Amino acid sequence: MNGDKLRVLVADDHPLFRDGIRTLVMTSADMELVGEAETGDQAVKMAEETQPDVVLMDIQMPGINGIEAARQIVHASPHIAVLMVTMFDDDHSVFSAMRAGARGYVLKGARHDELLRAILAVGNGEAIFSPVLAARMMTFFAGMRTSPLHIFPELSEREREILDLIAQGYKNPEISERLVLSPKTVRNHVSNILSKLQVADRAEAILKARAAGLGSSE
Questions:
Q1: Does this model's pTM top 0.70?
Q2: Which of 49, 96, 192, 199 is the most exposed place for a label (fewest CB within 10 A)?
């Protein structure tokens, strides 16, 4: 967060929704509105120019859609947190937004206090989802736990083993010692894991692994 206030950019093609967000942000002592975008392309351009802390992004936007806009924003400026605020609650939209780098997903119609908490949370580096979506995601990942091979099938057995240790908090040297592997081999596996999971860093991999049920020391 730059300065005392969280700098917010809103990207939505509905004027009434932008009006509501503007009012919401203006009534908060912790935020300021730095811009409003009506299209996906405009959102990408304005994010680059204004460098906000948080972008509120709808999915269905003129030009490029909100998910692609989020991907471009996060790729160009990884420090910007994108919070999807949309009416779409299907699994495809939610997981596509996560893969694009969104840190949160809130449904339109959420209470004002819920939306304010979500904006502040992602602005402070947290990941947040509407309660109904969080419950569905937990159910989805819980079902995957019945068979370890179904968790991240793109990973090899060794890569899943290393990801599980990463999710438990082990560092590379500890993993190397525990699995009797060279440090270089562990580094290569970790690099492959990040690439295959399409995550930006180790912290994001840990979040994804723990959401899928990995990381338990039991």
A1: no
A2: 49
CB contact at 8 A, 107 and 132: yes
Cα–Cα–Cα angle for 93, 105, 47, rounded to 5 degrees? 95
Write the pLDDT tens digit of every residue in 130-161. Answer: 776 766 666 555 554 444 445 788 888 889 89
Task: Give per-residue burial for 150-189: e unless 16+ CB within 10 Å, then b.
Answer: ebbeebeeebbbbbbbbbbebebeebbeeeebeeeebeeb
Q: What whole-number distance in Å separates Cα of residue 55 and Cα of residue 3? A: 17
| 212: exposed, middle or buried (Cβ count in 10 Å: 0-12, 13-18, 19+) | buried
Instruction: Summarize pLDDT for 56-89 with one digit per residue, the tens.
Output: 999 999 999 999 999 999 989 989 999 999 988 8
Residue pair 205/199 in contact (Cβ under 8 Å)? The answer is: yes
The amino acid at 217? S
Q: Pull the structure tokens for residue 152.
A: 């991240």
Residue with tokens 């509501």: 20
* Residue count (the chain): 218
- On whether the CB atoms of residues 60 and 89 are closer than 8 A, the answer is no
Fill in the amino acid letter for 31.
Answer: M
